[in-house]
# Entry
Amino acid sequence: MSKVDLALVGARVRTLDPEQPAAEAVAIAGGEIVAVGSEAEIRELGAAGETVDLHGAVAVPGLTDSHIHPLQGALDTRGADLQDLSSLEEVRAAVAAERRRCAPGEWVLGFGLEYDVFRESGIRGELFEDVVEGSPALLMFMDLHTAVVTPRALELAGVTGPVSFSENAEIVCREGAPTGELREWAAVATVERAMPQPTDAERYALHAAALREHAATGLTGGHAMDGTLATLDLLRELEANGDLVQRFVVPFTIVPESQPDDWEALLPHRDDAGRRWRAGVAKFFIDGVIDAGTGWLYEPDTEGEGTLPFWPDPSHYRRAVATFARAGFQCATHATGDRGVREALDAYRAAGAAPLRGRHRIEHIETLQLHDLPRFAAEGVVASMQAQHMLWCEPDRSDNWSRRLGPERSAPGRAFPIRSLRESGAVVALGSDWPVARFDPRLGLSAARLRRPPGERDRQPYDDQTLDALETLAGYTTAAAVTIGEETRLGRIRAGFAADITVFADDPVDCDPDELPELPVLLTVVDGEVVHRAA
# Structure
């Protein structure tokens, strides 16, 4: 055996390996776990380059976020943090405080807006004109599919009325005049193009800092859902500089206006990879979001919306899926509405090709027709779910998302059906969709067990679709590995597996889920490297 680089001893090791569920110590060499056993057995291997006595702390397989935007998110979370603000006055106060931090005339940014803030006022940019003192401002909603901008921002962007887009996007207008509400990315981009952009050095610094912050919460990797060829170059640079402190699988985002020539240009890059990252996945959007009326539904929502796909021509989407699937790519499709989910399942079945690694997958699945639920297990499609998205939903169904869908489609088993999918035999991988929700996996682990915000013990859960503690941990570990076809080297603490390990002060499985978000992360190990160590 090669010399041990790192030994973790004095631990309670929850391996998720059915052949050896528990241990006391782990030995690591060359980025790989080389032994798992008692402390005496590990110490008998000889002196390690570093030995860490964990004094009874709990080591689990490294936590992987199966749907995260770690690179774009670092850029999208600049400005005022508006998450968790529930009233218009709270948001206005936070935006005013951000304005005071900015130079005169500088763009005022914010992220994480909730739709229910505008229940009485409607979404209008003029609501913020006074608190930004006439400056241009762009505030993103929590789902990143809608923004509200001030009149000055519209002026600088030259937006004076409706605009036609190739995808299902809209500059919302009343009597021909834009209100400041921008639905979907093409509409948001019309204003973003007028904003000054950070330099390459500033962007790199934001990316590197975000990855360090994520590692400090115990994340050892993610399925990074915002890839282009330029993203691969950035990952190469981060890895070369020692700043890639997580392990990533990165899909190429395939946009509706792309053509077969664009797809063919990406196919040769299927096997592009570094030590801690790889390509091989194609990501599609068949619809938008329920909250904005752009999720694709079988029947209209309560405001008469939701009957249009994000891709104007679904047959074009099916051709794109077939092209990538038959070239060996794993396909991932964003589908929030029940019709979108069915269309994605149909596209995978029609393509008739399994990926070289992993399984085709559907992201979000916010509502589902019960007759489509068994297809995930039967057709080998992964359900990629984000329990944190439930934290905006009220048990009395008074929130915007539930009101839009109505009582039938927001009923137990139809709304974010995590447990129903898992019980059907489907692989359920868990993630955050950061920056839509907070990236901290402890919050995700808690949300999946509670179906309500942690700490609010008097609040009723949204429904009974909870997972138990072990199922939830599996969603961030073993299921994440199965999803990308890496179950023989990721997701367990086992000899021969990659040395990705998260160490908590106590057992996240036994921990009260309301207290889980505060459970200290003592150590994060990626590829055998300690990338986070608590003080």
